[in-house]
Amino acid sequence: MKKTQTDSATETPPTPQEERAADLCVLAELVEIQMSIARATQQEALQAPQPGVDYGQRIATIARSVRLTLLLKRKLADERAERRKAAAQREAAQEDWHALRVKLAVLAASYESSKDAEEVDRRSTEVCERVERPEVAELIEASRAEVAVAALCRRWGYPVQVERWLEMADEALEDLGFLPSEDGEDDEDPPEPGPAGAGCRKPKVPDTG
Question: Which of 81, 92, 144, 147 is such that its CA lies 20 to 30 A from the CA of 23?
């Protein structure tokens, strides 16, 4: 009993992708069930028709149900494809703007750990100056965003809340038009990536309150 409870508690919830894939499987099964009913109805109408049964209407009802199910299946499949496309575009943009993303994340860390506006200005200036140093620029270029942000936060005494800082950086990049939204609704092409030091002279960190 204890083992069963432990297993249930440690089960990983399905991801949105897994849930959508399961939905598509269910819809495919529904279509097959509906087609089986349609074939059985056709067989009964041809071989042993029952008095008073409108087989034409019954087939029409089943056909309408099949069409609606197929439309829903297609819609889910299209949404899945769009999400994949949007995720790929977002990931590519994050790579293109890697250096700026890291810098904005560290700026977010400095912003959130500052006590007043004066300290925000001082720390922001310090970050913008430090990220221009060759050894820091090399670290950013050679490391994944998560690794670079964690290393710089530790080096400069900021809270190491990497996921939070990167989320704030992504929000800023979206606001600046450099990063597509997660739902893929952005139609305009993002600007071309600039030099590694671009964007730090006038940092824009989301105001969280």
Answer: 92
pTM of the model: 0.50
Map the chain to HEC letters. CHHHHHHHHHCCCCCHHHHHHHHHHHHHHHHHHHHHHHHHHHHHHHHCCCCCCCHHHHHHHHHHHHHHHHHHHHHHHHHHHHHHHHHHHHHHHHHHCHHHHHHHHHHHHHHHCCCCHHHHHHHHHHHHHHCCCHHHHHHHHHCCHHHHHHHHHHHHCCCCCHHHHHHHHHHHHHHHCCCCCCCCCCCCCCCCCCCCCCCCCCCCCCCCC
